[in-house]
Amino acid sequence: MTAGRRDSGEGKGGAAAPVDVVGTPVSRVDALDKVTGAAKYTGDLIVPGMLYGKVLRSPFPHARIICVDASAAERIPGVRAVLTGRDLADLDPYYGHAVRDRPVVAIDRVRFAGEPVAAVAADDEHTAHAALAAIQVEYQELPAVTDLTMALNDGAPRVHEEALRPGFLHSGEFRREEGNICYHYRIARGDAARAMAAADVVVEGDYTFPAVYQYAMEPHTVVAQWSADGLTVWACCQHPYLVRAELAGIFRLPQSAVRVIVPYVGGGFGSKSYTRMEPLTAALARKAGRPIRIANRVDEAMLTTRRHNMRCWLRTGVARDGRVVARECRIWLDTGAYADNGPRVALAAGDAAPGPYRWQAVAVDAWAVYTHMPPAGSYRAFGATHLQWIGESQIDVLAHRLGIDPVECRRRNLLRPGEEVRPGRKPLEADLAADVSKVAAAVGWGTPKPPLVGRGVSIGVMGAGANPASTAAVRMQADGTLVLLASTTEIGQGARTVLAQIAAQELALPLERIRVAGADTHVTPYDRSTGASRSTTVAGLAVQRAAADVREQLLDIASRVWGLPRVALRLHEGAVWHETESRSYADLIATHFGIAGGELIGRGEVAPGRGDGQAAGPVFWEISCGGAEVELDPSTGRIRVRRLASVADVGKAINPQLVEVQDEGACLQGLGNAFFEEMLFDGGQLINGSLLEYRVPTMADLPDEFHSILVGNGVGPGPYGAMGVGEGALAAVPGAIVNALLDLGLQMRDLPLTPERVWRRLREVE
Amino acid sequence: MEIDRPPQARLRIGLTVNGRPVEAGIEPRELLLDFLRNRLGLTGAKRSCDVQVCGACTVLVDDVPVSACCTLAYEARGRRVLTIEGLARDGRLHPLQDAFIEHAAVQCGFCTPGMILTALALLREVPAPTPVQVKAHMKDTLCRCTGYWKIIDAVVDAGRRMQAGEAPDAGGGAREVAPRGKP
Ligand code: FES
Ligand code: FES
Question: What is the pLDDT of residue A72?
């Protein structure tokens, strides 16, 4: 076994400046804090007077709440407050960035098993926990729809009978359809039925994808505190400004009266995107009149948000020469009791269905469906992970039938740079045919194979970057060091390091003179979100512009001081130079302000209004490209991954080491999603709500060999031609593995590929 | 209704934490993880799975890695406990901490303290482990961010450097604990 070989195929990209900290694998700026235990996460904070909160959750997937009697619990010594639905009367208690359908705590009705019904604040966690048992809740159980089939039946009970309001970030038009449909996304291009009828070979099938838990190692944790000034929340959230907007809406406060501070975050992967435990914690703190901390346990985190389980029907038609002709697809995503990010997931799944190919016609319908299940939202590469393996497996089935090599079949059909990916959206940047050839070569494509060894590739594109809306500021201090303010949160992806590298590059400043502040909505400027692989590309661009703003100010001052035109000046190592003469930044600032003080403030923004991309997006197309070589043990159904390869097509790797580790992590999550990760439910009850029963990849699950191939063509819209990575590989891996099994004659239509499932399928095929 | 109230009774224990003697009154049911985090303010050990699967709460008790989330504080009486906060010595990082930084084996950092202490226990048993040995020893410590490769690289490298005498165990790493860019 080898410990993973990495190839660097990085090309030239972007404007090379003299001090090349960009493109260098510098150590993370947060690493020292993290290896010494000094790094503080939300759960490590103690706010004076803080109480501990615990949540009472519904045992039923659907029930009317007849009455909640908390009086016994309130009498327990050490219990300070119990929050129930009755405490929300003066609030606007329903939230949700897509659909405002979710109450802060259940009001009159519960819609999934695990829904918060009450919350206790007590002096310590034990007391809070013990008090939960003293809360008497009388329920009237109601018929529940606990899977997609039940929810879609005619006359099924409706999860939401009342009229729903769109959230402030609803994607597209808000149309409430009949029954339990939460959202419908459609792509119709050409006459798919007619084109399909004219195809020479057609394949179709039904597929399923399970519910999956993101397992950020730090479960959701929130501290909330009220004062005369308003509400302060410390939370491990990915999108502090979106959380702030929702809190302001719920508590009827101006946005400036809500402050969201994000300490270090112990992983996100989408589980901490949008608003999670913040409203409940804030409401409990309001009732108790004291600061509160609520820390989810793993089982509670699983009930807070998850990946959508899905059912899908897909049909693909091709011509005899291997040209793709038409694709039709129907997708049903179980978004659970509340929309959460379901609409966007449906959109991304719909967008992923056609794959990156040149079709004559496409017809895709994707529905997010309400059920009485725990809500589902974002998880790394959502939509793409659901669909890519399905579309890619049909390409391989057809290629095998036509006797065309699957890689060759892709080369003939893949979109080229500049071509339209989806109607009205941004054209493609990357060279997909080159990417797929790279992963194929890395897994030994075309070389002889031992028996029971199969190979597969998979490629797709995902709309990434969310919206091009970010701002940043940099403050050059009187001593020439820099404080960088950005609200992209450090969730492990390395945002603080990459942003510091960009500022260092623009200001010719040694990296150690830069400090990156943690996100704090009272301090760090607006950013839309931390997700969709956007931190480097979008927030990075805002930081680049903010740093350039200070650079211009420094040049202005120097040109005044020397009486020289700015073209005669250059920046190097923290000083402005004219030929062999230099003035340090500190010097220039002191001259400008006339004392040993002052500071230069630079601001940068990314906005469609100034020509940054289009609101319809995407900011860029993230590439999802992987290859696998697997070995099947037919007696057990176990699959060993001999080789795994992924292309990280980053435009420009600002920090190649961080790109690699992001790509490696995404691949490993892809293996988990492909092979064993699955949340199991019985009648709406989660039955594997612990890491004892829910298995995630360990070192023992690593492939024998792993190749992360960096590609940098400088074609991205971010700084230096960068574009984001970190999600795509997760979507690529299941498809590569499914296709490697197809190479062995085994067609899999359901994930995960547990040994039992593979073994049964083998028996069917024989 | 019977309520499981925290008992008022206290046990007194004495132990050594990061080389310092500690005397404390604890509850019988108090977990070592809560004792370290809440009473001593040593928050480096993290709570994640809470069921002895993930290793985020790992500390060394008499040099043996234990899951502090499933160990009673009482069980640590009279013993030596090492947490991540006690690993750097004399202002210098341990070679493992250096290696984790250099190899980008740290991302969100939530697993990192437990990962490093688990690796330390390995290096004390097997001074220069191979990647296969690292995998076998550390397969029960989870990281959800990295793909583990860089952690394996870091542990192998730290072991190699310690064995070659380039870096002694405990302190002596290349980096200072002091903040970057100190004048
Ligand atoms: S928290 Fe102790 S092993 Fe996971
Ligand atoms: S670095 Fe995030 S869990 Fe390991």
Answer: 97
User: Is A572 or A13 the better-scoring residue by pLDDT?
Assistant: A572
Q: Say whether pLDDT at A6 is over 70.
A: no
| Strand-pair partners of A222 | A235, A294
**pLDDT at position B179:** 59
Mutate to test the interface with B, among A27, A491, A584, A699 (most CBs of B within 10 A): A699
Sequence-distant (≥ 6) Cβ neighbours of residue A577 within 8 angstroms:
A569, A570, A571
Q: How far apart are CA A159 and CA A46, in angstroms?
A: 39
pLDDT value at A749 more than 60: yes
How many helices and strands, by DSSP H and E, does chain B display? 5, 5
Instruction: Judge whether residue A7 has pLDDT over 50.
Output: no
Q: Which two tokens stand for residue A164?
A: 């729903």
CATH topology for B95-163 is: DNA polymerase; domain 1 (1.10.150)
Marked catalytic residue, from A727, A756, A764, A766: A727
Nearest to B44 among A1, A37, A699 (CB): A37
| Residue A176 pLDDT > 80 | no
Query: Mind spelling out the 3-state secondary structure of A487-500?
Result: CCCCCCCCHHHHHH
Virtual torsion, Cα A155, A156, A159, A161, nearest 10 deg? 10
Please confirm, yes or no, whether A727 is among the known catalytic residues: yes
Q: One-letter amino acid identity for A60? A: F
CB A41 within 8 A of CB A266: yes
Domains in chain A: ranges and CATH: 467-610 (3.30.365.10)
Three-state DSSP class for residue B42:
coil
Distance CA A310, CA A383 (A): 10
* Closest residue by Cα to residue A327 from A184, A205, A152, A411: A205
Least Cα distance to A384 among A182, A622, A614, A192 occurs for A622
Superfamily of the domain at B11-86: Beta-grasp domain (3.10.20.30)
CB B170 within 8 A of CB B123: no
Q: Shortest CA distance to A561 belongs to which of A582, A547, A580, A579?
A: A582
Cα distances (angstroms) measured from residue A402 to each of A126, A322, A740, A742: 65, 7, 18, 14
Asked if A113 contacts A128 with a C-beta cutoff of 8 angstroms, the reply is: no
pLDDT recorded at residue A614: 67
Structure-token match 């899977």, residue found:
A147
Q: Compute the Cα dihedral for A15, A19, A25, A30 and give only its sign.
A: negative
pLDDT in tens, A296-321: 999 999 999 999 999 999 999 999 99
> HSE (CB half, 13 Å, CA atoms) of A26?
24
The nearest alpha carbon in chain A to B148 belongs to A699
Segments in A610-723 forming alpha helices (H)? 656-675
Task: Report the pLDDT value the prediction gives residue B135, as an integer from 0 to 100.
Answer: 97
* Interface touch B180/A512, C-beta < 8 Å: yes
Percentage, residues of chain A above pLDDT 70: 96
Question: A259-287 as b/e, with b when 16 or more CB fall inside 10 Å?
Answer: bbbbbbbbbbbbbbbbbbbbbbbbbbbbb
> What string of DSSP letters covers A156-170?
PPPS--S--EE-TT-
Spatial distance between the Cα atoms of A162 and A122, rounded to a whole number of angstroms: 35
User: How far is it, in rounded angstroms, from Cα A346 to Cα A413?
Assistant: 25
Tell whether B87 is within 8 A of chain A (Cβ).
yes
Selection from B136, B49, B89, B153 nearest residue A301 by Cα: B49
A163: confidence class by pLDDT, cuts 50, 70, 90: confident
Q: What percent of chain B has pLDDT over 70?
A: 88
Dig out the tokens for A344 from the structure. 């966007």
Q: Structural domain boundaries of chain B?
A: 11-86, 95-163
Q: Within an 8 Å CB–CB cutoff, is residue A319 touching chain B?
A: no
